[in-house]
Amino acid sequence: MVETVEVLLSSEDIAKRIKELGAQITKDYEGKSVVLLGVLKGAIHFTSDLSRELPLDVEINFIKPSSYGDGTVSSGTVSLDYIPTENLKDRHVIIVEDIVDTGHTAVKLKDYFADQGLASLKFCALLDKPDRREAKDLTIDYLGFAIPDKFVIGYGLDYAQRYRNLPYVGVLKGAS
């Protein structure tokens, strides 16, 4: 079956919201250095664009959890395929997610960093699907957009490793 895409968030909507998130983070971390920890592969565009909105001392690194494979639904089991090698003790870390769905990945990351001695740990997500949340005690400190429970692609989000390059977020129709 051939897939079609319906635009949910335009590139202009995304850029405007990232600018607002950048202003909020800049205010919260004024005079401090931060580590943006992008969640691979989906948050690569968001992490990059967000970093350019932060006139702070910013380091960028990545972490790679996995739970989807090539499907459209999280498996519920999260593994960490890549973790940063540098010491993050006493650092202000912002985990940058493309999307929070069930919340299992964010909880796994929170648990992983709990005993790392961070100065602070915050979560920033471009998208949130509150209707899919299973991790009820999860807090997203910096949120771009709450969206309906639809499978979305574009702006880093994929379906079977395709569509990450789209400059907008869209709903994939006809995916099986």
First and last CA, distance: 8 Å
Number of helices: 3
User: Residue-averaged pLDDT, rounded?
Assistant: 90
Q: Trace the largest sheet across and list its strands.
A: 4-3-2-5-6-7
Strand residue percentage: 25-35%
Which structural class fits the helix and strand makeup? alpha/beta
Let me know the number of strands: 9
Instruction: Name the helicity range.
Output: 10-25%
Stretches where pLDDT is under 50 for at least 5 consecutive residues are none
N-to-C order of helices and strands: EHEHEEEHEEEE
Give a short account of the largest sheet: 6 strands, mixed
Overall, the morphology is globular
Rg estimate, integer Å: 16 Å
Brief descriptors of the model:
alpha/beta; six-stranded mixed sheet; three-stranded antiparallel sheet; 176 residues
Short structural summary:
By secondary structure, this protein is α/β, with parallel strands linked by helices. It has helices at 11-28, 44-51, 104-113, and strands at residues 4-9, 33-39, 57-66, 79-82, 92-100, 120-128, 142-146, 152-153, 169-173.
What does this structure look like?
The protein has 176 residues and is an alpha/beta fold. The chain has 3 helices and 9 strands. It has helices spanning 11-28, 44-51, 104-113; strands at 4-9, 33-39, 57-66, 79-82, 92-100, 120-128, 142-146, 152-153, 169-173. Helix 2 (44-51) links the parallel strand 2 and strand 3. The protein is globular, with a radius of gyration of 16 Å. The model has no long low-confidence stretch (mean pLDDT 90).
SSE map:
Elements: E1 4-9, H1 11-28, E2 33-39, H2 44-51, E3 57-66, E4 79-82, E5 92-100, H3 104-113, E6 120-128, E7 142-146, E8 152-153, E9 169-173
Parallel strand pairs: 2-3, 2-5, 5-6, 6-7
Antiparallel strand pairs: 1-9, 3-4, 8-9
Helix pairs in contact: 1-2
